[in-house]
């Protein structure tokens, strides 16, 4: 069964299941930003609210927020950005190497010339 993007505002919903009825990692629609339902996943939940990771825009970035059960709806569609992996051959950023102690000791002190 396909679950399209909801069109109803959360305040107008009658059929709101408890937030913990969605399991950890469940795909959901998250209502944020006025009238936008965005794709997300459940991180953890209580009956009243859930912590979710969702995409606040059409771009790759995600946000983490706590939302009440009325602001969640089931989602079955794949989200192309869910668990996005780097494309094959893409170079990942590398953290610069920290100099070891011997290299730091050999540096001139502030104001000292070499």
Question: What does the model show?
Answer:
- This protein has one helix and five strands.
- With 114 residues, it is mainly beta.
- It has a single domain, classed as SH3 type barrels (Roll), CATH 2.30.30.
- The chain has a five-stranded antiparallel β-sheet with strand order 4-3-2-1-5, with no helix packed on it.
- The protein is elongated and about 75 Å long.
- It starts with 26 loop residues before the first strand and ends in a 9-residue tail after the last helix.
What's the quick description here?
The protein has 114 residues and is mostly beta strands.
* Total count of helical runs of at least 4 residues: 1
Q: Into which percentage range does the β-strand content fall?
A: 25-35%
Name given to the CATH architecture = Roll
CATH class: Mainly Beta
Tell me about the largest β-sheet. Answer: 5 strands, antiparallel
Helix and strand run = EEEEEH
Q: How many domains would you count in the coordinates?
A: 1
Task: Decide which structural class fits the backbone.
Answer: mainly beta
Distance between the termini: 73 Å
Using DSSP, what is the number of strands? 5
Give the proportion of residues in helices: under 10%
Radius of gyration: 22 Å
Uncertain residue segments: none
* Strand line-up across the major sheet: 4-3-2-1-5
Rough outline: elongated
Average pLDDT level: 80
- CATH T-level topology: SH3 type barrels
Chain-wise SSE layout:
Elements (H helix, E strand, L loop, with lengths): L26 E6 L3 E10 L3 E6 L8 E6 L3 E3 L26 H5 L9
Antiparallel strand pairs: 1-2, 1-5, 2-3, 3-4
């Amino acid at each position: 069964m396909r679950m399209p993007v909801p069109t109803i505002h959360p305040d107008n919903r009658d059929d709101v299941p408890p937030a913990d009825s969605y399991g950890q990692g469940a795909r959901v629609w998250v209502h944020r930003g006025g009238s936008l339902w965005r794709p997300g996943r459940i991180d953890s939940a209580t009956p009243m609210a859930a912590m979710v990771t969702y995409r606040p825009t059409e771009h790759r970035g995600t946000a983490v927020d706590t939302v009440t059960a009325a602001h969640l709806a089931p989602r079955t569609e794949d989200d192309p950005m869910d668990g996005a992996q780097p494309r094959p051959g893409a170079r990942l950023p590398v953290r610069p190497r920290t100099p070891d102690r011997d290299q730091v000791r050999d540096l001139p002190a502030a104001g000292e010339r070499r």
